[in-house]
Amino acid sequence: MDFFLEQSDLNSDRALLKELNKGNQLAFDQLFYKYGNRLYGFALSYLKNDADAEEVVQDVFTKIWVKHEEINTEQSFKSYLFTIAYNIIRRKFLNNAKEQSFKHDLIETSLIEDHNTVDKVDYQSCIDLLDQLIDQLPPKRREIFILRKKEHLPVKEIAEKLNISPKTVENQLTEALKFLKSEFSKENLGGLIFFYMFLSSDI
After folding, report:
1. How many C-beta neighbours within 10 Å does residue 77 have?
2. Staple partner for 56: which of 19, 33, 43, 201, CB 3.0–4.6 Å?
3. Residue 33 has what pLDDT?
4. Residue 28 C-beta-side C-alpha neighbours within 13 Å
5. Is 5 exposed, middle or buried (0-12, 13-18, 19+ CB in 10 A)?
6. Of all helices (H) and strands (E), which one includes residue 187?
7. Are 148 and 162 in contact (CB under 8 A)?
8. Residue extent(s) of CATH 1.10.1740.10 domains in the chain
């Protein structure tokens, strides 16, 4: 019985995909209605966050619409859909891990070795504060800072990428670091948080 249901489901998908290949919006809407909630539940089981799960569903179906002319009507659309979703979720995990590593590096490698007080540092508070302060940087300065400190791009490459001079890149990085150091110094963190980048000539 289940086999016949699956075959019927597959045939229904194929009919909808053939229409989707032609750019039929109604076919797209029907596929979204059919699989949207399933994808959401799948994403939520991994990400544990409503907004992130909704974003995965949106990203998946955006990709489906962009590539609607190329979708193979003979393949299992369900498998195709969930493979895309899985890859997006996987990238989110990798990006989140990279983001957390970036923040921890900025904080942990800059701690002064004071064993009497180091245990009192609230690392999550430091990370949250760092997030907030980076968001407060002017857009261009923030972009340059992230490219250099998170993506580890050379100054020259950033200059070429943004079509500005290397000197401008260095100046923007210097200003970003001054701002972060100044703001961190205002917080009651026991004087422990000093970014290693302030102590290095490697902007």
Report:
1. 23
2. 43
3. 92
4. 18
5. exposed
6. none
7. no
8. 2-96
Instruction: Look up the CATH architecture of domain 109-199.
Output: Orthogonal Bundle (1.10)
Q: What is the largest CA-CA distance in the chain?
A: 71
Could you say which of 1.10.3720.10, 3.30.470.30, 1.10.1740.10, 3.10.100.10 is the CATH number of the domain covering 2-96? 1.10.1740.10
- Would you state the pLDDT for residue 130? 76
Q: Spell out a b/e string for 165-196, using b for 16 or more CB atoms within 10 Å of the CB, else e.
A: eeeebbebbeebbebbeeebeeeebeebbbbe
* DSSP notation for 16-66: HHHHHHTT-HHHHHHHHHHHHHHHHHHHHHHH--HHHHHHHHHHHHHHHHH
Nearest to 202 by CA among 128, 149, 135: 149
Query: Which tokens go with 162?
Result: 């943004």
Assign 116 to helix, strand or coil. Answer: coil
Mean pLDDT by 10 residues, the chain (203 residues): 42 86 91 92 84 91 92 87 86 67 54 40 60 88 86 87 92 87 63 39 50
Tokens of 192: 């422990």
CB 130 within 8 A of CB 103: yes
Comma-separated ranges of CATH 1.10.10.10 domains in the chain:
109-199
Amino acid occupying residue 38 = R
